[in-house]
Amino acid sequence: QVQLVESGGGVVQPGGALRLSCEASGFTLSNYGMHWVRQAPGKGLEWLGVISYDGNNKYYGDSVKGRVTVSRDTAENVLYLEMNSLRGDDTAVYYCAKEVDVYDAVDVWGQGTMVIVSS
Amino acid sequence: EIELTQSPVTLSLSPGERATVSCRARQSSSYFLAWYQQKPGQAPRLLIYDTYKRATGVPARFSGSGSATEFTLTISSLEPEDIALYYCQHRNTWPPLYTFGQGTKLEIK
């Protein structure tokens, strides 16, 4: 069964940093591109970034570029999202998701992990 | 990133009616256009990708069409379980940067 489970959310102080994890099972990360998407409370979906299936290419949304890094550990089959200089509008549910095809839509999503930026 | 505009913001229809949601891209780009359904408290679910391809397990009443800058999600005959938010997603030709529409709320009368 293909599954994604995010973890690492919680309360973070403004100006702080976070590292979210996304544990994949039922498939191998090295075969699929992976995305991060977030959703602020009561708001729409915002695409954050993608790492290609081979891990060689990463692309980020304009709103978070320079503050975000997507990486992965293929041995552990875990995807990561690191974000720094956090501010209130980074408060959101963060989802990882698997591509259906190369640089295509995403067909499997995790349940999301909530990040609250607050002092 | 390509700017996307979805319409309408809210759609209220009766069971059995046909629902049409539009997504307009500010500039013509790839054929890549996806549609997602999101129910309260749940992660989004892929419905349509590459403009018209139905994702695995998606009922045939959902279909996608369009090209260039105008794309459409159609639900041929509404079921009560179709109450949800619907988002379109577009991707630049290159580099692959993705954008979501602002969402359409589908209500059942």
Write up this protein.
The complex is a heterodimer of chains A (119) and B (109). Chain A has 119 residues and is mainly β. Chain A is 0% helix and 51% strand. In chain A, the strands form two sheets. In chain A, strands 2, 4, 5, 6, 9, 10 and 11 form a seven-stranded mixed β-sheet that branches. Chain A has a four-stranded antiparallel β-sheet with strand order 1-3-8-7, with no helix packed on it. In chain A, a hairpin with a 6-residue loop joins strand 9 and strand 10. With 109 residues, chain B is mostly beta strands. In chain B, 0% of the residues lie in helices and 51% in strands. Chain B contains no helices and eleven strands. Chain B has strands at 4-7, 10-13, 19-25, 33-38, 45-49, 53-54, 62-67, 70-75, 84-91, 98-100, 104-108. In chain B, strands 2, 4, 5, 6, 9, 10 and 11 form a seven-stranded mixed β-sheet that branches. Classes of the chains: A mainly beta (119), B mainly beta (109). The A-B interface holds A 35, 37, 44-47, 50, 59, 61-62, 95, 100-101, 103-107, 109-112 and B 1, 32, 34, 36, 38, 43-46, 49-50, 55-56, 87, 89, 91, 95-103.
Short description:
The complex is a heterodimer of chains A (about 120) and B (about 110). Chain A is mainly beta and about 120 residues long.
* Rounded Rg of chain B: 13 Å
Number of strands of chain A: 11
Helix content range of the residues of chain B, please? under 10%
The quaternary structure here is: heterodimer
| Average pLDDT for all residues of chain A | 97
Shape label of chain A: globular
- Count of β-strands of chain B: 11
Along the chain, the helix and strand elements of chain A come as EEEEEEEEEEE
Specify the biggest β-sheet of chain A.
Answer: 7 strands, mixed
- Average pLDDT over all residues of chain B: 93
- Using only C-alpha atoms, the radius of gyration of chain A works out to 13 Å
Uncertain spans of chain A: none
Q: What is the global morphology of chain B?
A: globular
Amount of helix of chain A: under 10%
SS strand fraction of chain A: over 45%
Rounded to the nearest angstrom, the distance between the terminal CA atoms of chain B is 36 Å
